[in-house]
Amino acid sequence: MNDPDMRFHDLSRRPRRTLADAAVFISGTGTDVGKTVATSALLRALRQAGLAVQAVKPVQTGVEDAASQGDAACYARAVEDMPPGQLPPAATLHSFRLPASPHLAAAREGVRLTVAGLRRDIERHWRSLMAAHEGDAPCAVLLEGAGGLHVPFNEQEDTLDLMAVLAAPVIIVAYNGLGALNQVRLSLDAVRDRGLVTAGLVLMQPPDASHTADEATQAILADNESWLRARLEDEGIPLAVLPTVTLNEAGWERLAQAVRPVAQAVAALLRTPPNVTQALVRRDKKVLWHPYTSTIEPLPVFVAQRSHHNRLVLADGRELVDGMSSWWAAVHGYNHPRLLAALRAQAGRMPHVMFGGLTHAPAVELAERLLDMLPQGLARVFPADSGSVAVEVALKMALQYQQGIGQTQRTRFLTPRGGYHGDTTGAMSVCDPVTGMHSLFARMLPQQLFMERPRCRFDQPFDPASLDDARQKLAEHGHEVAAVILEPVVQGAGGMWFYHPDYLRGLAQLCREAGALLIFDEIATGFGRTGTLFAAERAGVTPDILCCGKALTGGVLTLAATVCTEQVADGICRGGNVFMHGPTYMGNPLACAVALASLRLLEEEDWRTRVQQLEQGLRQGLAPCAGLPGVADVRVLGGIGVVETTEAVPVALLQAFFVERGVWIRPFGRLIYLMPPYVTPPEDLARLCEAVGDAIRQGVHLSY
Ligand code: PMP
């Protein structure tokens, strides 16, 4: 095989059957709406359509007698007269005596239900059905919830949370009566807001409605049905209306007929789950361009479909432990309910408004909170759209400041080698001149001044001589330097290099003496990642200007900020001047609201302990890599773990290896590195480290 990557590509294209492709979740608009009868009717109709399908009740409450089958007995009766096939009988996975919500009924019996536990049980049960069923087509399951969508399993998690991790299509069952329209709408909206698909609505008719109900009631019932039919048709959701019947063989047959419109839609989904992966990858290749890639020979991409906690779910169902926090951003993990709630609430109020001449609470509150968290002395927040833009803003601030105070000759920036500050023109000009993009853009980039990379390691005693080059460059060029810009303590994308904080103290002194401003780019290091809230704290230095971004919104939306001292702001604005920057989406309320929620969460959730635990786990987990062939260095700081190799690694090959191991790690250059979400459980952190260790032991980093 010419292309060694193909080994892994082929594996990643293998079609898979996952629970999400094989399950349908049935929930009600409330309790006692007829869900069990609807589920049983659907079971019968699907079997009649030739599908291997079984119904399962994950949690049943109100079961007096331990031998009783609860709802599972009803499922069994609905298909009693049909050939049994090889499928094991319908089952209840957890049952409790108290006829109440699962959280309460379980607690009464000393049990704590969790979404993760229920999901495991459902998956295990489905696998046992698959094993028993030997037909060609895989076996499907109908999962009947307990009550409505927000019925809790414990203090934090409810039925919708379980539905969201299962990611299966949903059937909503409603009782036709007064209030049905409202209840159905609320349920459909809640399902959609979780990114789930409603595959059908089943409307249960009250007993003998056509004979006994008065005229007004009959009118309401008829209107409900036609109203729903029209609205659901617009949304592409089939409706089935089920009469009340005597539950004998003939009755089940009538129900199976009545539920058919929904059963057909479900059968279509179960027979051919959409093969999103291959189609999307093909379409992607035609129209998209990914970061730092060629359109002619693009690096392979994987289709990400859903995310939760510290996991990414690919379109083929594979679930990966995330080791990247989506490039430093998703510190709280994915889909955090508090961040999503802030997003939805702000979207309902005002998604965006221009920032010129208008302000809003999310921006004001975010700026206040940010200033409380940042090193003392920073006073003004300028919201920016992304990290690179925040760096452009910082450079412009420094230039305008120097002009404002009459230092018009100060037009250049001094920066250490090995830095990375973004991909826009100004930011590129201060990236490392060799590994950055200077060679490509040299003709148009402003020519900046470069000094030696801070060479004193973080974990070794400080060497004062490491400041010599900075001292010399400032002595030679200090008069033309507007500012020194650098990433404090950790140089990120330029090499994941950790250097001694004392360097920053010395550099701050040199800048003061030279009349140059000091800019800290904390876009990667901010919000706890290195073990302090901002890396500047380790040096006890307040810069004149600080950029933050990435984790600011917890990985939900793009937002960054450039923050400066009052002195810098005054220098720019004195004499009636203004700062010349103002992007269209500046201070976007959605992004500010999410950032505010993210900062609150950070403070409440004890990020410090979590990052310390990450640091310990990374140290322990990556230590075995030291000294292995092709490994130059292993280093860990806070929630960042780095294995530096001696040669550039084969990115596509390693990436595919990691995906096969169930982890998401994207190496670059000579770096295989981890920076997992702060919420990563210890066992997942161990999995990430083991995957890195395995890759290196097997020499994947050396295979070309
Ligand atoms: N500065 C640093 C230190 C960064 O790590 C990055 C992003 N990797 C940027 C700036 C640019 O941020 P963005 O990608 O949001 O433009």
Main traits of this protein?
704 residues; alpha/beta; Rossmann fold; Aspartate Aminotransferase, domain 1; Aspartate Aminotransferase, domain 2; seven-stranded parallel sheet; seven-stranded mixed sheet; disordered N terminus; binds 4'-deoxy-4'-aminopyridoxal-5'-phosphate
Summarize the structure.
The protein is an alpha/beta fold.
Explain what this protein looks like in three dimensions.
Helix content is 41%, strand content 17%. The chain is an alpha/beta fold. The protein has three domains: 20-271, Rossmann fold, CATH 3.40.50; 279-332 and 606-704, Aspartate Aminotransferase, domain 1; 337-604, Aspartate Aminotransferase, domain 2 (3-Layer(aba) Sandwich), CATH 3.40.640. The strands form five sheets. Strands 3-2-4-1-5-6-7 form a seven-stranded parallel β-sheet, sandwiched between helices. A seven-stranded mixed β-sheet has the order 11-19-18-17-14-12-13, sandwiched between helices. Strands 8-9-10-22 form a four-stranded mixed β-sheet. It starts with 5 loop residues before the first helix and ends in a 7-residue tail after the last helix. Residues 1-15 have low confidence and may be disordered. The structure holds 4'-deoxy-4'-aminopyridoxal-5'-phosphate. 4'-deoxy-4'-aminopyridoxal-5'-phosphate binds next to helix 17.
